[in-house]
Amino acid sequence: MGSSPLPAPSSSPSYTPDSGNSGYRSLAYDLDIAYRVATNRLDGTATIRLIATADLTRIPLDLARLRVSKVRVDGTKAVRFVQSAAKVVITPAAPIPAGEEFVVTIEYAGAPTPRNSTWGTVGWEELTDGAIVASQPSGAPSWFPCNDDPSDKASYRIRVTTEQPYAVVCNGVLVRRSTRSGRTTWEYEQTQPTSTYLATVQIGRYELVPFTAGAVPGVLAGPPALRSRIGHDFGELPSMMACFEERFGPYPFDGYTIVVTEDDLEIPLEAQGLAIFGANHADGHGSAERLVAHELAHQWFGNSVGVASWQYIWLNEGFACYSEWLWSEYSGSQSAASLAAATHERLSKLPQDIVVGDPGPKLMFDDRLYKRGALTLHALRLELGDDAFFGLLRSWTAEHRHGVVSTADFVAAAGAAAGAGAGAGAGASRVTALLSAWLDRRVLPPL
Ligand SMILES: [Zn+2]
């Protein structure tokens, strides 16, 4: 079936070679954006606090298509910069020594458009009546200058001013809203470390309806015409939150916002503290319940515990898919075991050409990677037993809260979880071998 017993190469070049920069890390983004929905015109000022990790004579940032008009470094007057298709490279007046913090201020403008990528278009995109940002994995430079590397997390303050009838939803907490001359400014603050691809702006004729899920405050944002459908289809969120907090540990952010766009969307997607669904996902019959659980689970797996490189995407998607099965089990629907058996049966008939631990950029969002990632976790659960398995998930989210991880980190943690139990050392090596069969080889192991 096209499968090969050969192990994958031990490391891969970047999955997004045009994104990310070396020589510094980001600490905080302050984005001040004026946007006109009618004309898709964006005027932005990005104030970015960075720290040099090497002596810097030039500062490259990712920015696609939008034109930079002025750059300052630490408040000094206009400094030199050059702009190419996907970068703006700044030359500070004097070299910045390693270890020093500095602030870059960039004024830029244009008509934001999504970027073309291996995975279709990503980034800022116009809706029929509003705008959506869906950046995974390389779309962030379509709307702000950044170090577009998932391992480089920073805090965000995003201020968007737009025409009054529109609501703006961004990551984090709405800290200010004011209206002047028919335009409203919405200011959001996201204090927890956030990857660029999870920073977002959503603009539409939305009403914002508060809800709570246990101790977590939430907002349902969507078109008023869809209010009852949204209320119904996201009504299980409090139970989902309870299920996942019990299995994964405390919810890692200040709140959770759902945005339902007036347009249909091919797939829902996660952002930091937030998830975006299309009108088609809120049909009033709960048809997308599986996906509601999936996106919520990303807040732990992918958003709080992030990937150090896209190569490790299964640590986001395998966990989010397995969470769908955990929710199914918890809510009295099909058990994870029966869902795993059915999925294994289906995958066994498909080409076995994916190495889950290093799928390559073309296959990183392949449904088979998602499902086989989930099966990997089910196989591990069978090996460890429920107590050790869920203990592992809770210590994983606690230890790596707001950090980034690799597959090797997870294999080590799973080995330690096995070693701590009854079988001790033999258990640890069995777990390492089991995970290697699932993650490093193309052939589908038996369940
Ligand atoms: Zn996902």
TrEMBL record:
State the UniProt keywords alphabetically: Hydrolase, Metal-binding, Metalloprotease, Protease, Zinc
> What are the boundaries of the region Disordered?
1-20
**Biased segments, Low complexity type:** 11-20
Top-rank lineage group of the source organism: Bacteria
Aminopeptidase N-like N-terminal domain residues are 27-198
Which cofactor is recorded for it? Zn(2+)
Q: Which residues form the Peptidase M1 membrane alanine aminopeptidase domain?
A: 239-419
The family database entries (Gene3D superfamilies) matched by this protein are listed as: Neutral Protease Domain 2, tricorn interacting facor f3 domain
The reaction(s) this protein catalyses: Release of an N-terminal amino acid, Xaa-|-Yaa- from a peptide, amide or arylamide. Xaa is preferably Ala, but may be most amino acids including Pro (slow action). When a terminal hydrophobic residue is followed by a prolyl residue, the two may be released as an intact Xaa-Pro dipeptide
> What EC number is given for this enzyme?
3.4.11.2
Q: Where is the composition biased (Pro residues)?
A: 1-10
PANTHER family xrefs: PROTEASE M1 ZINC METALLOPROTEASE
Give the family, as the similarity comment puts it: Belongs to the peptidase M1 family.
Q: What is this protein called?
A: Aminopeptidase N
